[in-house]
């Protein structure tokens, strides 16, 4: 009986050590936002690639430092804001806006894990609910 208890205890200890030792992959990040807001340019800048682009027409995925980043193309046929930008409660989103005023037209996004950013350089940085990236991949790295 003592052997069984000791063996079971040893198995529990070994399994708990293994589980703690395994690192889980970070959750993917989804870049969303309207066409022309800087999603593709920012991804290319992260990869130190030339950033001349045309309108992205398909969703795609890249890996950046072991992290999956998806660029999701908006569904312009969807009427619902969250469906249009493929937003659900389980994802981590970086939402690119074209200008500060755009945020005022969005519905309440507090139940979702969304970080609002603006890629382009702007002179006046007046909003606290928006991260100004100033076309800097270094600033974007801090967000993801």
The amount of helix comes to 25-40%
Number of domains: 1
State which percent range the strand residues make up: 15-25%
Radius of gyration: 21 Å
- Described by the principal axes of the CA atoms, the overall outline is elongated
Summed up:
The protein has helices at 2-21, 39-46, 81-84, 137-143; strands at residues 29-32, 60-64, 67-71, 92-97, 113-118, 131-132.
Descriptive terms for the model:
alpha/beta; 6-stranded mixed beta sheet; 4 helices; 6 strands
Written description of the protein model:
This protein is of the alpha/beta class. The protein has one domain. The chain has helices spanning 2-21, 39-46, 81-84, 137-143; strands at 29-32, 60-64, 67-71, 92-97, 113-118, 131-132. A 6-stranded mixed beta sheet has the order 2-3-1-4-5-6, with helices on one face. A hairpin with a 2-residue loop joins strand 2 and strand 3 (67-71). Helix 2 (39-46) crosses helix 4. The chain is elongated and about 75 Å long. 17% of the residues are buried. The mean pLDDT is 87.
Task: Compile the SSE list and pairings.
Layout: H1 2-21, E1 29-32, H2 39-46, E2 60-64, E3 67-71, H3 81-84, E4 92-97, E5 113-118, E6 131-132, H4 137-143
Parallel strand pairs: 1-3, 1-4, 4-5, 5-6
Antiparallel strand pairs: 2-3
């Amino acid at each position: 009986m003592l052997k069984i208890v000791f063996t079971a205890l040893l198995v529990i200890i070994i399994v708990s050590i293994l589980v703690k030792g395994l690192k889980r992959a970070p959750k993917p990040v989804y870049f969303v936002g309207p066409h022309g807001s800087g999603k593709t340019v920012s991804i290319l800048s992260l990869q130190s690639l030339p950033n001349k682009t045309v309108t992205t027409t398909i969703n795609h995925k890249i890996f950046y430092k072991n992290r999956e980043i998806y660029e999701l193309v908006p569904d312009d046929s969807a009427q619902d804001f969250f469906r249009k930008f493929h937003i659900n409660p389980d994802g981590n989103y970086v939402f690119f806006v074209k200008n500060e005023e755009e945020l005022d037209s969005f519905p309440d996004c507090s139940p979702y894990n969304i970080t609002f950013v603006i890629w382009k350089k702007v002179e006046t940085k007046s909003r606290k609910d928006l991260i100004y990236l100033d076309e800097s991949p270094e600033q974007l790295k801090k967000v993801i």
